[in-house]
Amino acid sequence: MITHPTQSMFIGTLPMGFATIVNMFCFVCVPAWGEWARDFTWAMWIIDAVIAVTTALSLPFLLMSRRDETQLSSMTAVWLLPIVGTVVTASSGALVAEILPNPQHALWTVIVSYVLWGIGLPLALMVMVIYLQRLTLHKIPPKAMIVSVFLPLGPLGQGGFGAMRLGKAAQAIFPKTNTLEDISGQVFYSMGFLVGLILWSFGLVWLFFASASIARCKKFPFNIGWWGFLFPTGAYASCTCQIGAELPSAFFRILGTIITLCVVALWIAISMVTLKGVMAGTIFHAPCLADLRAKEKERGVVVKVV
């Protein structure tokens, strides 16, 4: 799977899924269970950060170092998956920093989160430039991969949410630790909101491209890739809701609620269809294993010839 140019990219979903568990520990388990849950959550976040950096650096390099030449026409937005994990982990780091009682621990969590954000988001933006070129030259993906056009919403939505949450954490932690100048925390908070609003606005562009592509296809077959609807849209909903929380704006709060309800409805519908496919045994397909079987057959033919 690691050597497959497409399937290997899905390893990047591991730190993203792990980050959601860390978030729920921050929101639910720490208030209910106390001190040990706080330390356990911080340890889980550190492990998640290591996994996220490893996948973000290693998988793109493996793609570069493959012997077979990669055609631009074969590129899909799944190239973003191993990269976005660092942005998601950075957003979780802001939540973890808010629950840590030690200001120094919280400070280093915020600093590392900014580093993770800086690793993931600029690299994701570069990949999105390549993807836009692919869409322009080779047109929208085939129906089986059409859902992937929603994936650029992930780094933009989560990047905006992370920038705002990290700025909010810096505003509270920097004065306690005498970090930089007295007003540095406020500056980070204001810049975080500005960056979040810009990324949210850029997400509107990709939301239009994705929606227009889906509308043009009209009907397309269900496959496991439909889960690609959920995370990008959910990340964009988080960014929208966070803007609504920072601004005295009913528009963003209502819009964030609408997008969130759409995500919930999609999750229910896709879960039901997926469960039906699991029961029938028709939903899962691993191209990397098919390639492996083909290689084994070739090796078997060579051995017989010899």
From TrEMBL:
The keyword Transmembrane helix applies. Pfam families: SLAC1 (PF03595). The chain crosses the membrane at residues 12-34, 40-64, 76-100, 106-132, 144-167, 187-212, 224-245, 251-270. The keyword Cell membrane applies. It is found in: Cell membrane. Its main location: membrane. InterPro entries: SLAC1/Mae1/Ssu1/TehA, Sulfite_efflux_TDT, Voltage-dep_anion_channel_sf. Keywords: Cell membrane, Membrane, Transmembrane, Transmembrane helix, Transport. It is a multi-pass membrane protein. Coiled coil: none annotated. It comes from the Eukaryota. Belongs to the tellurite-resistance/dicarboxylate transporter (TDT) family. This is Voltage-dependent anion channel. It comes from Aspergillus pseudoustus. The lineage of its organism: Eukaryota, Fungi, Dikarya, Ascomycota, Pezizomycotina.
